[in-house]
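Encode chain A's predicted structure.
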Amino acid sequence: MRLRSQNRLRRTKDFDFIRKNASRSDCSAFVLYITHTATIGSAFSRFGIVVSKYTAPAVGRNRLKRIFREIFRTTKIPLACDILAYPRKTALNRDFSKLKADFEKAVENFCKNFQE
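Encoded structure for chain A:
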């Protein structure tokens, strides 16, 4: 199943805004930048992913994109937020359930800190 267009980050200015103004969560296999969408004006959670060429060959990069999109799609996010993911080389060797648990924990920590 695909991500809807309303749930995708596409514009460069959105990526730059999130990178500059978001909370950074550094997991061992990836880095997440998370910001609340009220600052941009969107009512939906949106997701973007950046996988550089040094991370893996094309097949590995595309696999990482599919994995992280599926994690985002199946994770219940209590707040509408924008999430930008930067996977590392070690993400290819990680189990899907471990990646998903780390992703959910990072999002949960952000939502908990934002509501306080």
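The mean pLDDT is 88.
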